[in-house]
Design goal:
- With about 120 residues, the chain is α+β, with helices and mostly antiparallel strands.
- The chain has a single domain, classed as HIT-like (HIT family, subunit A, 2-Layer Sandwich).
- The chain is built from three helices and five strands.
- Strands 1-2-3-5-4 form a five-stranded antiparallel sheet, covered by helices on one side.
- The chain is globular and about 35 Å long.
- The relative contact order is 0.22.
- InterPro entries: Histidine_triad_CS, Histidine_triad_HIT, HIT-like, HIT-like_sf.
- Pfam families: HIT.
- Keywords: Hydrolase.
- This is Diadenosine tetraphosphate (Ap4A) hydrolase.
- GO terms for molecular function: hydrolase activity.
Length: about 120
């Protein structure tokens, strides 16, 4: 999967499509999912053009990697999901490629919580 500069997240980053921003730093943006699957469902995306988590981990600068992960922690805390703040927990999901059912070819992490989420995958 190659990076498509017209994907919806690239367009959000360019300001062409509005979003419900939760938090932002120099390297990443967090915003509410438009089709939430849990009471809290926030997407965290790097501002760089990375297709998947492995692409990001292999090719992003140290500053981008740290900035991204620090924003995830900030959002977990601000949204009441952080275990350190007494939350019951959350799930962080990233999908890659066809088998991972990735819908947008821009690396993104789903941060979900606010209720029991059940098993991650069905046995089978």
């Amino acid at each position: 999967m190659s990076y498509d500069t017209s994907n919806i997240f690239a367009r959000i980053l360019r300001g062409e499509i509005p979003n419900d921003t939760v938090a932002e730093n120099e390297h990443a943006l967090a915003f509410r999912d438009i089709r939430p699957q849990a009471p809290v469902h926030v997407l965290v995306i790097p501002k760089g053009a990375y297709v998947s988590y492995d692409d990001f981990a292999a090719n992003a600068s140290d500053a981008e990697i740290v900035g991204f992960h620090r924003l995830v922690a900030q959002v977990a805390q601000s949204e009441g999901l952080s275990l350190a703040e007494g939350s019951q927990g959350f799930r962080a999901i990233t999908n890659a490629g066809a088998h991972g059912v990735q819908e947008v070819p821009h690396f993104h992490l789903h941060l979900l919580g606010g209720r029991p989420l059940g098993r991650m995958l069905q046995a089978g």
